[in-house]
Structure formats: structure tokens, C-alpha cells
Amino acid sequence: MLNLVGLGLSLKDISVKGIEAINKSDEVYIESYTSLSDYTIKELESFLKKEIKILHRSEVEEEKPFFQKDKNITLLIYGDPLSATTHTEILQEAKKQNIKTNIIQAVSIFTAIARTGLQLYKFGKTASIPFWTENYKPESFFDLLEQNASIGAHTLFLLDLNPKDNKFLSIKEALEVLQKIAEKRNFKLTKAIGCARLGLESEIIKYDTIENLKKHDFGKAPFCLILPGKLNFSEEEFIPN
């Protein structure tokens, strides 16, 4: 059996079902590259009272040491197990190898964004903003912003993570990239919502102009950025300033 267990957004978000699956497991793994957390692996091991083996991207996507037919294995995933396409592919491959799977879901960024006051059903397509380099400056994520804006939908931008140095693209960096593209395309950027550590006690949600958000200190990652579409009365009342 392969259990895909969501950890949620903070240390104690994991469900009772998840803890039960872990307790019954012969081995427990965790993927280390789709998110940054506010706790260490050692703290997680102490909380779960279980040894956890850390997997890097190549091990999750290619080697897959958690594919063991004769053992009960758990793969821990930050947020919700089905939020990333990589994890869906794991389920598909497990099925081909006749390995039984068990999915235990948890809160993720895709539900936590409702804490901003924006209504979930009004969000359009989600996109990621990557680190720009001298030779790599994609703009496809901006296409989705334009599509969403054309129907008044909100846009959630996930900010890139570099697992090698454990660094997230900052909200300021992401806004600067968006401004450069918007200027070329004559797209008007007005206000945005910067979010840091959603779902944690230290969360920050700030709705302001682009220039003011660039100056704001959001503290530590993880971050996300929301470009609101057309706000209704309820959202305007709820959205924090």
C-alpha cells in the first residue's frame, strides 16, 4: 500500500486519518521541493514519532523508492496530495504496477486563499511566476492573467521555489516582473494582494497598490500573489487593507 498523506500548511494540520496511516507504515518518506514549511523535518518526526526519509525531486519523479509492493509506505506531501501534477502521475504509475494507493487529503493554498476574502468560485486559472534570468524570461503566466481579467476572474500566482538554496521568489520580485510585462502589453496593473504564510499564526495578507506592496516587508516564505478581478460587495467588505 502506498499512502499519499497531505500535511496541510502548518505542523498540526495533518488529519487523524493521516496519523493513523503513518503509524501503520513500514517506511515514511517526504518530498522536499514543492513547498517551504514553518517547521523542520526533525520537528515533524518528533510530532509524528516516526523516522522520515527525505526525498529530492529526482527521487520522487524518477527513482521512486516508495514503490514497494511488499510494504506499507507513506509519502508525506506539503499541502494537499493532489495539488501538484507530479503526485497525480505517481498515482497513475502505481496503478500500472498494481500497487494499491490511499489518498488522505488536507488543506492547501488553493483553499487557504479564501482567507483573503475573495470567493473561491471567482478564481480563474492559476499560474506560477518563475525566477527570471538573463537568458530565461518567460511570459506565459501573464497570458493567464489576461484571460482571467477578461472575464473578471481573480488570478492566483504561485511564486517559484529554488530547492537548491531553499529560496522563494519574493513578492517584490514577482511584482517587478509583472510590471515589466504589463508595460510592454499596455495592461493596467492597479492593486494586488500579497500573502505570506497563509494558514499559519504569522500569516500576512496585504491588499494595496503595486508600489506599496513592493515596499512592504512580508517576512519569511512561503508567499503567493493574487491579482483580483472584479470584486463584488461582499469581497470589498471582507478584503483586508
Question: In words, what does this structure look like?
Answer:
Helix content is 32%, strand content 21%. By secondary structure, the protein is an alpha/beta fold. It has 2 domains: 2-107, Tetrapyrrole methylase, N-terminal domain (Cobalt-precorrin-4 Transmethylase, domain 1), CATH 3.40.1010.10; 110-238, Tetrapyrrole methylase, C-terminal domain (Methyltransferase, Cobalt-precorrin-4 Transmethylase, Domain 2, 2-Layer Sandwich). The strands form 3 sheets. It has a 5-stranded parallel β-sheet, with helices on both faces. A 5-stranded mixed β-sheet has the order 6-7-12-10-11. The protein has a two-stranded antiparallel ribbon with strand order 8-9. It is elongated. The mean pLDDT is 92.
Keyword list:
single chain, 241 residues, alpha/beta, Cobalt-precorrin-4 Transmethylase, domain 1, Methyltransferase, Cobalt-precorrin-4 Transmethylase, Domain 2, five-stranded parallel β-sheet, five-stranded mixed β-sheet, 9 helices
